[in-house]
Design goal:
By secondary structure, the protein is an alpha+beta fold. It is 19% helix and 23% strand. The protein contains 8 helices and 15 strands. The protein has helices at residues 37-47, 97-103, 126-133, 167-170, 192-206, 226-232, 267-272, 305-312; strands at residues 52-53, 59-64, 76-85, 91-94, 115-118, 146-151, 179-189, 220-224, 247-255, 261-264, 285-288, 297-298, 301-302, 319-324, 344-351. The longest helix is centred in the middle third of the chain and has 15 residues, at 192-206. The chain starts with 36 loop residues before the first helix and ends with a strand.
Amino acid sequence: MNRKTTIYRSIAAISIAAAFLGCARIGSITNEKLDTKAAFDAWVAVHHPGVDTTANGIYVLEDIPGTGDFVRDSNFLFVEYEQRNLEDSSLVGYTSSELAKQMGVYDETYSFDPLIFRMLKGSCSQGVLDILKGGNKLGRMRIGGTRTAIVPGWLTSTSTYYPAGNADKYVQNVSGTHYAYTIKVVGSVKDIIQWQIDSIEAYMKHHNIAIEDTTGHRGFYYWRDRQRESRRGVKVIDSVHIPMDSTYMINYVGRFLNGKVFDTNIKDTAKLWHLYSKDGTYEPLKVTCSDDSLSYKLSGSSVIPGFSLTMHRMHPYESGRSFFTSNYGYGDKSSGIINSYSPLIFEIDIVESK
């Protein structure tokens, strides 16, 4: 398989990397050991005197208020970010394609869409929550607002939390990576699945694909591509179904709603979208049928529910296209080049043989 293949469940999820660095002057740590809170506070006092802090101890260097609603814990946030290691100012994470080009790290396969996550403990680090929620002199961020902050290493974990004002009690000798972040909140929605459904239906309308969500699975759509079957020169008989104890071969392409391909087993397509790997396998892959529509296997491995549901609906030699929300894909996790809460498209051809 292609090394960038992302449809298998077994790929480890990547937790969200929070935030990004703006135009505020940060400075970097040089030959200083900042493994205690006292040492870190002293360094900040020298390099950024008078800087605003939150109750938990992050240091906000720049705050550009937004004009939209205040961010809410129950909502899903769309965030543009940049993140740097405070020690050497090296770039760790980002959503800006222009910045990536300037830094010489641009990758055409990378997604530059805003990250989506909820303001909940475990969804992002305590330091990022502090940036969003504020504290002391700073209030919550608004949609459209930007904040640049320094976050000490003991607040960069998704599982670490220190009660307000008690960091000294819990942090005496902590070695961790300190980061400089800038976060810009560009949007917010209450129902992330409905937002994806609206996005999918807008895509289908734009491409003149008139289908309804009649599959019995909210947010999953299947469309038979008869024009593609005609181009392939195959004949599909609707009354003929693939036996549940059989196998068949497929070619597939996975896309985002913007049309960008993120995965395929077709060599020319992989090369076109800069996904090709000399170690990849580019040939039709074997599907193993199952009585359970969510338990199909591809080359012996389990696949995401949306991919399995797609294959379950198909007839011999059929060409089909499915559109589904992230609850049939990767949900709130990232996988490879797929961000969390990403609606996906798969185009599948059932072929006769290799």
